User: What shape does this take?
Amino acid sequence: MSLFNLEGKVALITGSTKGIGLAIATRMAEQGAQVVISSRNQDVCDEVAAGIREKGGKAIAIACNINHKDQLQNLAAKTEEQLGKVGILVCNAALNPYFGPSQDIPDEAFDKVMHANIGSVHRLCQLVIPGIAESGGGSVIIISSIGGLKGTDALGAYAISKAADMQIARNLAVEWGPKNVRVNCIAPGLVRTDFARALWENPEIYKATVANYPLRRIGEPDEIAGMAVLLASDAGSFTTGQTIVIDGGGTISS
Assistant: This one.
């Protein structure tokens, strides 16, 4: 059996109707996982899940706004009700309503970033990890960002939240390791997604960014999905508490 085989595993992936989340869901389904597609809009979730099923994968759709605890509770409960215990949790959904210096960010925007990007990860892990442990163990993957490793003059609150992701992974890896639950972060650099469109569509920002990347290009969603599959599978069975940077070498060269 392949080290990357995910047959029989239930994978719950937030923010999985586009970008990195969609790539992760698609690739995990290809490896045999039953995937739960989740984002705010049920119709879009249904469409994405249907597309995965049309290609031979197994997928269901459960809408969830990560800002609301009751919706996170519903997501966890419905997943277990329909598919059984989760074996793979991918916390991918995040937001960033503000681009500019920290001095000027409105309180509402700052609080929104912290509540969604840190709070939802904390709450969903509280809801799902005990079930992962009860079923013999599994993998939690938090999608962070290289923004959490570097200073920034335009993404301050977002970067703080992504640094917090890394610490959540370390804490939970220590707490749940004895129950065979592995918790890791992936920290992408600039990736061609709608979420980062303002960065890669701006010629000046793009040029400045890739000039510092040894590979001289930005990443693609599948290049993040591959690492998620590794961390979720037996190939990653001795990896926990880590932040895996996937940025074309940008962090080490700039």
Remarks:
- The radius of gyration is 17 Å.
- The longest strand covers residues 181-188.
- The CA atoms of residues 24 and 228 lie 7 Å apart.
- The chain is about 45% helix and 15% strand.
